[in-house]
Inverse folding.
C-alpha cells in the first residue's frame, strides 16, 4: 500500500498570505496525485488532479506541482473561504489518501 | 446539475448488516465508474469500493473485502453498498462518489460527492 504523508498537520496563516502544503508518497506515484478540500460538515471537493491540473471551476489561486514522491499544493493568496482541511490522494496503485492538513486562520 | 444522494445509514449492532443506497442524477450514470469512500468521525478519508460502469468489475479496500459488496442498477441510476459483519471500526460517514473520466477512461479521482450517510456500529 502506498502511504501518503502530509505536512504540516496544521498550518496557521492569515488571509492574503501564501499557503504551501506538502504530500509525500512512500513510493513513486508518477503524476497520479490529486488534492481535495473539505470544509466542516461538507463533502470533499476535488481541486487538483494529476498533480497540476485544476478541476472544473477551481480558482486560479490553487496550483499543484510535483511528481514521483513529492508534491505541493499552493494557494497563492488565501481567501477566507480557503480555511479548511486538505487531503491528497494517489491513484497509481489502488487508491489511498493522506491524513490531511488543517489550514486555520491565524 | 450532478446530484448524488445517499440513504440507508443508521445505528446497527456489531455483526449486523446494513444496505446503503445512492441515487444519482444530472449525468449519464451508466457511463461512469462509481465509488464509495468513508470517513470515520474526526478522521481522514478511506476508499471503500469501486464498481465499473456495467457492474462487471468490482474492487474493495482490504478492510472491507469479504464483508461489503458494491452493486448498481443502471436502469434506476442507483448505487448500493451491502455491508455485512459490521464492526465498530466501520462507523463512519459513507460517501457515494463519481469517478472522473477522460474520453471514457476512468481517472480514479472523485469529481462529485454526495453529502454522505452516517453508519454507526455500536451495541
Amino acid at each position: 500500500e502506498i502511504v501518503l504523508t502530509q505536512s504540516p498537520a496544521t498550518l496557521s496563516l492569515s488571509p492574503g498570505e501564501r499557503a504551501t502544503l506538502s504530500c509525500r508518497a512512500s513510493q513513486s506515484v508518477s503524476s497520479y496525485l490529486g488534492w481535495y478540500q473539505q470544509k466542516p460538515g461538507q463533502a470533499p471537493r476535488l481541486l487538483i488532479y494529476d498533480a497540476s491540473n485544476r478541476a472544473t471551476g477551481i480558482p486560479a489561486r490553487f496550483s499543484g506541482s510535483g511528481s514521483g514522491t513529492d508534491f505541493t499544493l499552493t494557494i497563492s493568496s488565501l481567501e477566507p473561504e480557503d480555511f479548511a482541511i486538505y487531503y491528497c490522494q494517489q491513484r497509481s496503485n489502488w487508491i489511498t489518501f493522506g491524513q490531511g492538513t488543517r489550514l486555520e486562520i491565524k | 446539475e450532478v446530484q448524488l444522494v445517499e440513504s440507508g445509514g443508521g445505528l446497527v449492532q456489531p455483526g449486523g448488516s446494513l444496505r446503503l443506497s445512492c441515487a444519482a442524477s444530472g449525468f449519464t450514470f451508466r457511463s461512469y465508474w462509481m465509488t464509495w469512500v468513508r470517513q470515520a468521525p474526526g478522521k481522514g478519508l478511506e476508499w471503500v469500493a469501486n464498481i465499473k460502469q456495467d457492474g462487471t468489475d468490482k474492487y474493495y479496500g482490504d478492510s472491507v473485502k469479504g464483508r461489503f459488496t458494491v452493486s448498481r442498477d443502471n436502469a434506476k441510476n442507483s448505487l448500493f453498498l451491502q455491508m455485512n459483519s459490521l464492526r465498530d471500526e466501520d462507523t463512519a460517514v459513507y460517501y457515494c462518489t463519481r469517478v472522473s473520466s477522460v474520453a471514457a477512461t476512468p481517472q480514479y479521482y472523485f469529481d462529485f460527492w454526495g453529502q454522505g450517510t452516517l453508519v454507526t456500529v455500536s451495541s
User: Anything to note?
Assistant: The interface with chain B takes residues 1, 32, 34, 36, 42-46, 49-50, 55-56, 87, 89, 91, 94-100 of chain A (CB under 8 Å). Residues 31 and 101 of chain A are 20 Å apart (CA to CA).
